[in-house]
Design brief:
By secondary structure, the protein is mainly beta. The protein contains 2 helices and 17 strands.
Length: 265
């Protein structure tokens, strides 16, 4: 009974954490630049994907942008060029992103500059991952639900994103976007179910538990809201962007932890 009550509470928490006023721009008339960029704390490759699209949500193949001049700046520090690699991707190998720093991504295309600035959020630690039998709406479907355990920092406002790989395949579809904030659990030892799918015995799941900067969180929140509202693909709303000059997409800065679990019977 306690676990059933917990499921009800967690569903309520996820609903409450997403209840905020969202202004969505219904701008779908002309092709526009779309930016997808994610910077992780530590030494990792940094990639920027650039494309054009008449609608952010169209499933047709997007026209790539291969003539941009892209730079990444550690505010107060070095600016480096992000050179073009292939297929609309611009890449720096082994870029070192640091704690307590601010970063600006700048993109120049056809005489127009698009930029976004984000702070590296404080690190968060994933204490453990636990598998449980499904209950409530998932009961009888088989598989396992994953619960994430961590201690929320009471001295800061936290925004979280979970990215996972299933059997060595990174899951990055719209349905796999899982975000939340700490408005309901600030400063508590906390667990949350990873409500993206059920996992089968033998599955290997690698979970990235990430703090995300607030502006990128707002982008993903509006994206989830639009998808959840079942917007028709002919004229959907565009999610809030954190770029200047009307570019779609986002520049996200992450800091966090990663753990693996192999699902048992």
């Amino acid at each position: 009974m306690m676990r059933l009550w917990f499921y009800i509470m967690m569903i309520g928490w996820l609903a409450i954490s997403c209840e905020k006023v969202i202004d969505i721009d219904l701008n779908d008339a002309n092709p526009n630049i779309v930016v997808e960029a994610e910077l992780y704390q530590g030494e990792r490759d940094f990639e920027v994907k650039l494309s054009y699209t008449s609608s952010f949500f169209e499933e047709e193949e997007q026209e790539i942008v291969d003539n941009a001049f892209v730079t990444l700046t550690e505010v107060g520090g070095e600016t480096v060029e992000v050179p073009y690699a292939e297929d609309g991707l611009y890449r720096i190998e082994d870029y070192l992103a640091k704690d307590d720093k601010q970063y600006t991504l700048s993109i120049d295309v056809d005489g127009v500059n698009y930029s976004s600035t984000a702070d590296m959020p404080p690190n968060v630690t994933l204490d453990s991952i636990e598998q449980r039998d499904p209950m409530g709406p998932f009961m009888g479907d088989g598989g396992k639900v994953l619960f994430l355990h961590w201690n929320d920092n009471p001295d800061q406002e936290n925004y979280y994103r979970v990215i996972y790989a299933l059997n060595d395949t990174l899951r990055r579809s719209r349905e796999d976007v899982f975000i939340f904030d700490d408005g309901f659990v600030n400063g508590n030892e906390t667990e949350i179910p990873l409500f993206v799918r059920l996992f089968d015995p033998g599955d290997t799941v690698d979970v990235q538990f990430l703090a995300i900067d607030p502006k990128a969180y707002d982008y993903l929140l509006t994206l989830n809201t639009i998808i959840g509202n079942g917007q028709p693909s002919a004229a959907p709303a565009n999610p809030n962007s954190n770029f200047t000059n009307g570019a779609l997409g986002y520049f996200a800065v992450y800091n966090g932890d990663q753990k693996r679990i192999i699902i048992e019977e």
